[in-house]
Design goal:
Helices cover 71% and strands 0% of the residues. It is mainly alpha-helical. The termini are far apart. It binds heme C (HEC). Residues 30, 33-34, 37-38, 40-41, 44, 70, 94-96, 110-111, 114, 140, 143-144, 147-148, 151-152 line the site of heme C.
Length: 154
Amino acid sequence: MKKTHLLTSAALALSFTMPAAAQMSIEDQITARQSAYQFMAWNMSKIKAQAIEGDVAFNADQMKAAANAIAAVANSGLGALFSPGSSLDKADDTRLKPEFFEQPEKAREVGMNFGREANKLQAVAAEGDKAALARQFAALGKTCKACHDNFRAK
Ligand code: HEC
């Protein structure tokens, strides 16, 4: 009885901790994460154009939509697209450095910082203040760069 219960809990725990993308091939994980970053960069470029460079007229609704999209990607559980074996020493067509797996504490730290600043971007964009959005864009951009400097090959 007890044994069965333990087994069930173990199976359950596993099903909760196993990332949803565990069944995805390494190749598909790499494609998906690269697309996720491209999609975020596209949305970041809209904010840059409107809130920083001003070559496109500021539109608070568009800024909100862009920030929501970035936050949605940031909160989607991107970590599931980073299986061991998906770094550039083991897989093709990726710039993920093996350090990502060798320095899990650091990887977690940069990932957490990124998530926090992406959520702040969403909150700031909802307020509709251009100057505040420009500041938060810069703060989020620093967390993108921190990860690239540590874990993305040139
Ligand atoms: C947790 C680390 C991390 C964070 C945070 C991060 N990136 Fe990246 N980024 C990477 C890695 C690693 C790659 C390389 C992925 C690969 O080739 O498999 C990458 C690749 C990219 C690419 C190229 C995608 C391609 O087509 O190959 C772009 C563009 C990009 N990131 C933009 C951003 C932007 C913009 C942000 C912030 C809003 C960001 N990244 C946040 C780690 C990160």
